[in-house]
User: Fold this.
Amino acid sequence: MKKVILSLLTIAIATTVSAQEQKKEYPKPEKMNPGMTEFWTPQPKIVTPGDSDNKFCTAPSDAIVLFDGSNLNAWKSNRSGGEADWTVHDGVFTVDKTKGDIITKQSFGSFQLHIEWCVPENITGTGQARGNSGVFLQNKYEIQILDSYNNETYSNGQAGSVYKQVIPKANAMRKPGEWNVYDIIYNAPVFNADSTYKVHPTVTVIQNGVVLLNHFVIQGTTEYIGHPRVIPHGDGPIRLQMHGDKSEPISFRNIWLREL
Ligand code: MG
Assistant:
């Protein structure tokens, strides 16, 4: 009998504790702001790239040419879904800051991407507000484009970072008015049924012949505020960012991609 009473008493106490646990209010996590995911040290070492003679490498025979200097037919407006409405001139195209991002009409899985970009010689602005753009892989993961030549900002937001996820291994910027070249090798992710990564996306970024990222494991989407998010997706387009800063607009040329 004593044993039965003891057992009942134990159950009663356990139930009360459990109810109290459930009622207990945990403090709400602090609301995140942009500064919480910015890392300012270390700054990447400055590496002066070799001289390209400002000429570009034309597309190999099996590449999908996304821009050859003549038109933006491979692209569309991300805002309207209509024609890409940035300005094509002199064999390049320039961001129109009134028009929003542009994306490729075609979607891709894993690929090698070659893209060249240039900020104007007379660029103004500081930090993230100086020649900011970006190339989004599968429309989800931003490789930062920024004038990082003598322009301090948080290290994980410099040119060649997976935005706010990793500090590039070097700063290989050419100065404003000269063309920078990105060669990006990207492996698309695989997802589990529960929407987690089975295989994370990975990326290698080479700028002007200098490795900035070496098979970096992408953690999720590249967020301005807050942590990366894991959102299941299939093939996706390349997206180029129109950043709303007030600096003079950036230009692009010679864009091609090889599917892997
Ligand atoms: Mg950007």
